[in-house]
Structure formats: C-alpha cells, structure tokens
Amino acid sequence: MLGKQRAFTLGFQHVLAMYAGAVVVPLIVGGALHLTPAQMAYLIAADLFTCGLATILQVLGTKYFGSRLPVILGCTFTAVGPIIAIASASNLATAYGAIILSGLFVVLAAPLYGKLLKFFPVIVTGSVVTIIGLSLIPVAMNNVAGGQGSADFGLPRNLLLALGTLIVILLVNRFAKGFLRSISVLIGLAVGTIAGYAMGIVSFAPVNEASWFNIVQPFYFGTPQFSLTAVFTMIIVNIVSMVESTGVYLAVGRATDQKVEQKQIINGLRSEGAAIMLGGLFNAFPYTAFSQNVGLITLTRVKTRDVIFAAGGIMVVLGLLPKLAAITTVIPNAVLGGAMVVMFGSVAASGISILSEVNLREERNLLIAACSIAVGLGSSAVPQIFDQLPDFAKMLLQNGIVTGSVTAILMNLLLSGKKGSEDA
What we know:
By secondary structure, this protein is mostly helical.
C-alpha cells in the first residue's frame, strides 16, 4: 500500500497522461455541433466526472462489475463520428438515448464475448499489444509537432520542447531512485511546461475564464430519445471498444506481471457497459479502457490499484471544479508529445516482449504476427483507404486495433489448427 500523498501524486500523473485524450473528444463533438461556451464547459466537466466514476468502479470491482485491474476508463474516439452524425441528423437527445441502450448491450453481451477469449493465445495477445503501442505512436508524433491542425505545427520550438521533455523523463528514470523515478513523467511535464512558459507559449486564460464550481446533472441536453438506427450504430461502436479494451486488459496484465482471467475481462467489460450508460445519463460519452496509461505503468513500475483509484477521485473533483481542470490544459501539446513517445513506445515494447515468448522461427507464428501487425498499423496510418466503404464498415476498418486483432485471431484459427488451441 502506498502512502496517501504518494498515491495522489502518482494518480495525478496518470490523469495528466490521459487528460488530452479525455478532453479532446468533447472539444471535437462540441465544436462540430456548434455548442455554446456554457454547453462546451458542461460537456468537458461531465466527461471528467463520469471518467472518474467509471474508473473507480473498474478498479474497486464487485462480484459482477469491475476487472480489479489498474485500468483507467476514458471516452472512446471511435464514438466521435457517430455521435456527430446522429446529433446532426436528429439531436443530442437521440445520441444519448442510443448511448444508454448500447451500454446495456455491453453489460448483457460481456459473458458471451468472454467465451471468445480462447481465441487469444500468446501469439495473438503479443500481436495485439504491439499493435496498440504502434498505432498510438502517430498520436504522440502529432503532439510532438504541436498538435494536429495547429497553426504552429512542426515549428522548431515544439520539437525542442518535446525533445527536452523526453530527455528529462529519461534522465530521471536513469539517475533517480524510488518515488522520484516513479513520477518521472510528471517531472518531465512540469519542466516542459515551465520551459514553454519561458518561451511564451503557455497561456493561463482558460484558467481565468473557467468557473469555480459545476454540478453535473442528468439529461442536461434533454430527455433521451430513441432511434433504432442510432442504437445499432452505437452498438457497433461499443463492439469495437470491447475488442480494443480486451487488448488493453491483456497489456495491463503483462505490465503488472499477472495472468488476466476470463472473469476479470467479463467483469471489466460489464463495468464499461455501466460506464457507457452513466455517460448517456450525464450526457457525456461512451467509455473504454485507455491504452495511454498502460505505458505509464510499464515505465514507472508502480502496479498498485491505489494509484488508479486516486486518479479516478481526482477526475471526479476536476469534473466538479472546472477552474482546477483548466490548469491541466495549459500544458503545451509538444510537452505531452514528448512524454507520449516514451509511454506509447513502452506499450509496443511490451508487445514485442510477449512475442519473444513465441517461437517466431515457426512459419505460422511469424505469418500471424507479421500480417496482423502490418494490417493493424496500416489501418491506423492510412485510414483513408476505407473512405469509399459504407459508414459502418469504415468505422470498423479504420480502427487499427480492431483490424489487427481480427486478422491475428482469424490467421491463428486458419494456420494453427490443433496446435493453436493447445497454445491458447
């Protein structure tokens, strides 16, 4: 058990690691739907509040809910396009009605999905974890350059800030010991932000403009409405998230040196379904296990659930106190990118470590790993190749984790035969 202060500090480090991914979804959705500043502020607050509740439920666990793994839940990027499409065609109330029912689907379907886990032997698990890490690296590099679509994208100062942040993290990991080494990412983010402030690219305007207190309320955007098409669309989104989360659970198990049992994954997915329903209730978003934080666990070597519980509590507080939440937004994208490089690289390295346990001189294993990683990385790197397909197919195939995982599972069935089932 960690001391309360240490758990809080390490939890805050996890919040910073996932914060950009958490707030970018409400910013994109709110911007696309032309929400007012007050509505945008509510959307971000509700998102953080629900992220915190969902994470606490996941970590604590009950008989049927929660994996009891150090997993943070955050809003899934897969849902961004569908939510915008549904709300544009009808209204946000219809989108949230679909989110609530799709969450119920995840809760009910989790045991059935759990029976599919026998198709995840070591060769498949290693390939999936590697794909997760590799597919996140372009996100890191976009942030290194200043953030995709930003006016200062690729400016030398951004690259310098990212490099400086990365060097600080590596130096702390190399020379510090104990607690200081475990908060290397937090130290890197702090030093990078101070350097950014000295360069004149850190603005505290969002902090000044944010309100002190916000109450998250059910059905902020109106009583839920229901459309069969919208519900089916969100169910597809959440099936994608279930596959993605399975890979994250397996990666966390690897990072924490424990075998993840079928029951843990089923309970974890049930918990995600409950979180999705909460997202619909509070007018936030569908939630999934965040792969951003797996690398941080690997890097810091802190594997206790206390830290993630603290992170969940911090997010709940940030959702209620927007001014505090706004402080975390002053970190420059380039600084976040420098930290992401080492964290996401750690996930990919963890996947390669799993694959090292498999005999890759055996042709079938080599083909499964090669094809699944190539398909997964290709789908993430060049998603526009699927632009001419129907929307539901595009939604599935543009997610590299899904295409890579399905490729690995199908090739394992096709090539492994009886040996594959023994490996499983």
